[in-house]
UniProtKB/TrEMBL annotation, chain A:
Principal subcellular localisation of the protein: membrane
UniProt superkingdom: Bacteria
Keywords associated with the record: Membrane, Transmembrane, Transmembrane helix
GO biological process: methylamine metabolic process
Topology class, membrane: Multi-pass membrane protein
Annotated protein name in UniProt: Methylamine utilisation protein MauE domain-containing protein
Localisation per UniProt entry: Membrane
Membrane-traversing stretches: 12-37, 57-78, 85-105
Domain spans labelled Methylamine utilisation protein MauE: 15-149
Cellular component aspect of the GO annotation: membrane
From TrEMBL, chain B:
Protein name: Membrane protein
Taxon lineage: Bacteria, Bacillati, Actinomycetota, Actinomycetes, Streptosporangiales
KW Nucleotidyltransferase (keyword) present: no
Transmembrane segment boundaries: 30-51
Database matches in InterPro entries: Thioredoxin-like_fold (IPR012336), Thioredoxin-like_sf (IPR036249)
Keywords for the protein's UniProt record, in alphabetical order: Membrane, Transmembrane, Transmembrane helix
Any one Pfam family match given in the protein's UniProt record, by short name: Thioredoxin_4
Basic and acidic residues bias locations: 1-24
Stretches the record annotates as Disordered: 1-26
Length: 176, 250
């Protein structure tokens, strides 16, 4: 009794934590994508500034990243395909952590371009790599939580019967 | 048929019914899942196409409009008698966004001038204040001033952006600057000595300061149409850029 009660509370809290994680991650992604979406060329310059990808691939990524962020962000906020969206969001954030660490390790002086802008910093400006990495790593954790405990409260997945992400497809195999 | 058998078959029927229901539910769920997934993918694809489309460069048209290298370092590209609208391009050979502008919209500037729809003025300035970027930019800018023929200048201008060095290392080395001049077909006999001695380094720095203050340049590239700065979302979108310029001509 004394042991089961706290664990019951914890279990009841999990879906709410997922909801908060989804909202934070989703809103950050939407904001980041939206601020970049109006000017694809700026976005391409920001990606090229990392000197991590060949120019042609950097261009493709620069065009696609803002819209991908917005779409995944919207899926997370409304709680649709929660698990898949969580996986993509977490992988995106991991890639950003890697990219920023790369820029830092290679002595580049760039703006991460996370929320638009990007490219070489002007004189007197200092890069904020550590802060960027800590923020993005925190978002990786939120993504991981969402993948582990989908879809949380207030998720469209639930009324549509999609709660549990791919588990839908697993059940299909069982019943078949 | 005994009572037990009847009950059994009824139970079976119910069980079959439930299994069928579950299967139908399941199929519905998979359909919903796939539908939502496809819509999301389509949205990403459409957004990518839109971005790529906006940044689609124009095809090279016919011959370039006449190009005149002015004494102060500005370079005018316009057909005879075309005086407006005026497009001023403030750019730095070392700045990555300027390279991007040249890649995306460079051809549109050339076409608009060739069609007589605008007078284009290039202002190669040095915006950087710290080395190695400042040194790189000054060397390149000074070298470009050694080219007095307009067509050759345009070819050299393109080559400088194509060969833009990293912002963290010394680049635009003197030997390279001389070699690219040969590639661009620069014929003036004193080009090499002009680049090697950095004859115009001082002029490049002074011009940059003057232009920066007079035109209130906060960053490069800055594109102005009849004196008003164009938003980057227009300058980097060839179709919109063309519409805006032809609109200003009316």
């Amino acid at each position: 009794m004394t042991a089961s009660q706290p664990s019951h509370h914890v279990r009841a809290a999990i879906p709410w934590v997922t909801t908060v994680a989804r909202l934070v991650l989703g809103v950050v992604l939407i904001a980041a994508g939206w601020l970049k979406i109006g000017n694809p060329s700026d976005s391409v310059v920001a990606v090229k500034a990392y000197r991590l990808l060949p120019d042609s691939i950097a261009t493709t990524v620069g065009y696609g990243l803002p819209i991908l962020e917005v779409v995944v962000g919207v899926l997370l906020v409304v709680g649709l395909l929660t698990r898949v969206a969580g996986v993509i969001a977490a992988l995106l954030m991991l890639a950003f952590v890697f990219g920023i660490a790369w820029a830092w390790a290679n002595g580049l002086r760039i703006d991460c371009g996370c929320f638009g802008g990007g490219g070489e910093l002007a004189a007197g400006q200092e890069p904020s790599y550590l802060l960027d990495i800590v923020r993005d790593f925190g978002l990786v954790l939120l993504g991981a939580w969402t993948v582990w405990f989908p879809p949380g409260r207030f998720a469209l997945d639930s009324p549509l019967g999609l709660a549990g992400g791919e588990r839908v497809l697993d059940l299909e195999e069982e019943t078949a | 048929m005994g009572k037990g058998d009847r009950q059994k078959s009824a139970r079976d029927k119910i069980r079959e019914q439930q299994a069928a229901d579950r299967k139908r539910e399941q199929r519905k769920r998979v359909t919903t899942y796939v539908t939502v997934g496809v819509i999301a993918l389509a949205a990403v694809g459409a957004g990518w196409l839109y971005a790529a489309n906006r940044s689609q460069s124009e095809e090279a048209g016919g011959a370039l409009a006449p190009i005149t290298v002015q004494a102060d370092g500005g370079v005018v590209m316009a057909r005879q008698g075309v005086t407006k609208p005026v497009i001023d391009i403030y750019e730095d050979f070392q700045c990555p966004a300027c390279k991007q502008l040249e890649e995306v919209s460079g051809q549109t500037f050339k076409n608009l001038a060739a069609e007589g729809k605008a007078k284009v003025v290039y202002h190669p300035i040095t915006i950087f204040s710290q080395d190695p970027t400042r040194g790189n930019s000054i060397r390149a800018g000074a070298a470009s001033r050694c080219v007095s023929d307009g067509k050759q200048w345009s070819a050299y201008h393109t080559l400088l952006f194509d060969n833009q060095p990293s912002e963290t290392a010394q680049g635009f080395k003197i030997d390279d600057l001389v070699a690219w001049g040969k590639d661009a077909g620069v014929t003036s006999p004193d080009f090499e000595s002009c680049v090697t001695s950095q004859k115009y380094a001082q002029a490049q720095a002074a011009y940059s300061d003057k232009i920066g203050k007079e035109q209130k340049i906060e960053g490069t590239p800055t594109v102005k149409l009849d004196g008003r700065p164009l938003d980057n979302s227009v300058a980097f979108a060839p179709q919109q850029l063309r519409d805006q310029v032809t609109g200003a001509a009316k």
